[in-house]
Design goal:
The structure holds two protein chains of two kinds. Chain A is an alpha/beta fold. Helix content of chain A is 42%, strand content 18%. In chain B, helix 1 (2-31) runs antiparallel to helix 10, helix 2 crosses helix 8 (195-217) and helix 9 (227-242) packs across helix 10 (247-267). Classes of the chains: A alpha/beta, B mainly alpha.
């Protein structure tokens, strides 16, 4: 009996471990032994996002968006007459695993292109893999800029299409009676928030902006009491929030509990979108400001169909937002580039992207790939969260902004030692 | 002065959150010696139980009674997390008493399985819980000094839970049996204590208290499949610093770490505050390797 129990137990343990490994390992629906990315009627692409771990919450909706775009393109006849087939890999919120899976996608699956990554850490980890194997990555999240790889197309925005317009907006609308804007910079402790805040501090040198506080929280930090005391003490005109992940929920909840409102101190968030608002509860975000290029409420026919389709596929309670849209348009831009190149070959597709003619009528409006930087021409928008958890546009730039990841167009950037 | 009082309150509040989160661990790890890496996931189970009960109330109960969901949630979080704990103990943990490293690995695996289970059932996104209206305000003393009702509520809840555990452990027959079993298993068994039942019951109660912590933490933090991981390190540190095996140890541990973190953070920054706290803990454990409060035993090899 005892030995039976021991055996049963060891089987159970083995099962539990296998299960958890399977959970970590992700799943792939690839076809077998195909040495090239295309065969007679399909072309293979990769999707590389975290489906487990702390980033899964943010990245899972992006996988849904990419799958939706692929299905749409396939329904309309595919790319160059071929149906798109995808290999899904789980980066497991770990940069090392991202690099490993990227290598696998490029060298053993031989995919034509990859859609994926969220954190700058994961992008920096896969960058040498894509450059070394001459792959092509479509990166869908706003980030700190100061990068433009030959092998990456950035479908979201560098700071000059988000952070810099947002600071300008606050400077116009939220400065105090003395004509001075007092900002409190709050972010997670890693490369994106720190670089963004370095840029904002450089702008502050130029304008009448005073940085009254600068705080960084470890990722996953959940107790905001001390940070809130510091905010109450310094009484800024606005907070620039570059917190990433779950900590946003804790911050917004505890901000309200501390008796602070959006009227006293508005929070301007750069890395928190409709999906995060849904996860914290709309009443906490109401009245605060969000800087993006796309909101679900953007009033274009493309935006309406995009959101309707997304909801119909994944559930009425789901929301769309900027990163979801940027993941979606990446697939269309790639398809357009392939059509122009007449080939799936990475060099030819990149060459097509650099023609300056690859554009797509996205939910946010027309986007065009900039040949020099591999980023997109985009409109910057500022919005305010309403009681339903949606962000309503308050302001947008009249023209599409030329992407400037190296901040070449700003005199203060060179002085602050930023840029090339 | 205002700042000073407000920082003291912050420190107390952080301590109470830690204490509530670590109380269950003080039982399962402190008393029973099981390194339970899935402790954080019991907190998660409590939080999701609260979410589910809130949803049930939202659609089935008249709005004016909506706030009562929280009382039901506290009880149900305890029960559901307790049941999960019982299942875990009966299926896995009981085979691993005394095998510290094995139980560490297996419970870590269990924590991954539970996280994935939550992700499968509730999706990978965070969910939101509406707090009951009686905590949805704050006590404003002056412009700078205000106490959030939620934090006061958690403080009181931590106090009640500690009192409850202390009462069970030191004033009831069951509690005496638990302590007897943990201190000298063979002797307790020979005096007629059913140590199997004691083990299962103790582990279930410890897990249940983690569930209550999860329920309370829905006020302040995110609710998602991975929330357990944000608390696991702090809770273990609390129990180890305080001294394994004593409730008063958990109280002291949480007080030192809570007060320490928030004051260091105030004078430096959040990341550095955490580093300094860790340094203090390391120094403390150099001086008192078994934590601040230890149980004196006569065993030589311990």
């Amino acid at each position: 009996m005892k030995s039976f129990m021991r055996k049963a137990f060891s089987i159970f343990t083995a099962a539990a471990i296998t299960l958890s490994l399977a959970a970590c390992g992700g799943n792939s629906n690839e076809t077998e032994g195909n040495s090239s990315s295309t065969n007679s009627d399909t072309v293979k692409v990769g999707i590389l996002h975290s489906m487990t771990g702390t980033m899964a919450m943010s990245e899972m909706p992006l996988v849904d968006a990419v799958e939706m775009a692929i299905d749409e393109i396939n329904e309309n006849g595919g790319v160059l007459g071929k149906q798109i087939e995808y290999v899904l890999e789980d980066g497991a919120s770990d940069s090392a695993i991202f690099a490993e899976k990227a290598t696998k996608l490029l060298t053993s699956d031989n995919v034509a292109t990859v859609f994926g990554c969220w954190t700058s850490a994961s992008r920096k980890a896969v960058l040498p893999v894509f450059e070394g194997n001459n792959g092509l990555l479509w990166y869908p999240v706003q980030y700190e800029g100061l990068e433009s790889s030959h092998n990456i197309m950035y479908t979201s925005c560098p700071p000059n299409q988000q952070a810099i317009p947002a600071v300008d907006y606050l400077y116009e609308n939220n400065k105090g009676d003395d004509g001075k804007l007092q900002l409190f910079l709050l972010g997670s402790d890693y490369v994106y928030p720190r670089t963004t805040n370095t840029i904002i501090k450089a702008i502050a040198e130029e304008k009448v902006i005073e940085i009254v506080g600068e705080e960084y929280l470890p990722l996953g930090h959940t107790d905001m009491s001390t940070v809130l005391t510091k905010i109450q003490q310094t009484k800024p005109d606005a907070i620039i929030n570059t917190i990433n992940g779950d900590s946003n929920v804790a911050f917004f909840k505890q901000f309200k509990d501390a008796g602070l409102t959006a009227n006293d101190i508005p929070i301007m968030s750069f890395s928190c979108y409709e999906e995060d608002i849904k996860g914290m509860g709309a009443e906490y975000a109401e009245g605060h400001l969000f800087a993006w290029n796309y909101f679900q409420t953007v009033d274009t026919p493309e935006s309406t169909t995009f959101t309707e389709k997304y909801k119909a596929l994944y559930g009425e309670d789901r929301v769309t937002g900027d990163p979801i849209q940027d993941a979606y348009i990446g697939v269309y831009l790639w398809a357009a580039a392939c059509e122009k190149a007449g080939s799936f070959d990475v060099d030819k597709v990149i060459e097509a992207c650099e023609s300056g003619e690859i554009e797509y009528m996205a939910p946010e409006g027309l986007v065009t790939i900039d040949p020099e930087t591999h980023h997109l021409y985009k409109v910057a928008r500022i919005g305010k969260a309403n009681a339903e958890g949606q962000i309503e546009e308050l302001w947008s730039t009249d023209e599409r902004i030329k992407p400037d990841p190296w901040l070449t167009g700003y005199s203060w950037a060179a002085e602050a030692g930023l840029g090339q | 002065m205002e700042l000073f009082i407000s920082q003291i309150f912050n420190g107390l509040s952080v301590s109470s959150i830690l204490l509530l989160a670590a109380l269950g661990l003080a039982i399962t790890f402190g008393l029973m010696g099981v390194i339970n890496m899935a402790h954080g996931e019991f907190i998660m189970i409590g939080a999701y139980t609260t979410y589910v009960i809130q949803n049930i109330f939202k659609s089935n109960v008249p709005e004016k009674f909506f706030d009562t969901y929280f009382i039901v949630s506290i009880i149900m979080s305890f029960v559901i997390a307790g049941i999960f704990g019982l299942i875990l103990e009966r299926l896995i943990i009981r085979h691993l008493y005394g095998r510290v490293l094995d139980s560490l690995l297996v419970t870590w695996g269990v924590s991954l399985v539970l996280q994935q289970l939550a992700r499968t059932i509730f999706g990978s996104s965070n969910v939101s819980v509406i707090p009951p209206s009686f905590v949805d305000n704050n006590l404003k003393v002056t412009q700078l000094l205000s106490f959030s009702y939620k934090r006061i509520f958690i403080l009181i809840m931590a106090f009640i839970c500690v009192a409850l555990v202390a009462f069970i452990m030191y004033k009831t027959r069951a509690g005496r049996n638990v302590r007897a079993t943990m201190q000298n298993r063979a002797m307790a068994a020979s005096l007629g204590v059913n140590t199997n039942i004691i083990d299962a019951g103790t582990f279930a109660i410890g897990s249940g208290f983690a569930g209550i912590a999860g329920c309370a933490l829905t006020f302040l933090g995110p609710i998602g499949p991975t929330i357990g991981t944000s608390y696991i390190v702090d809770t273990f540190m609390t129990v180890v610093v305080g001294g394994v095996g004593r409730i008063v140890g958990a109280i002291t541990g949480s007080f030192i770490i809570g007060m320490g973190t928030s004051s260091f953070e105030f004078f430096t920054s959040a990341s550095l505050g955490k580093v300094i706290t860790f340094i203090v803990v390391i120094i403390l454990l150099q001086i008192k390797p078994k934590g601040i409060f230890t149980i004196s035993t006569r065993s030589l090899d311990d």
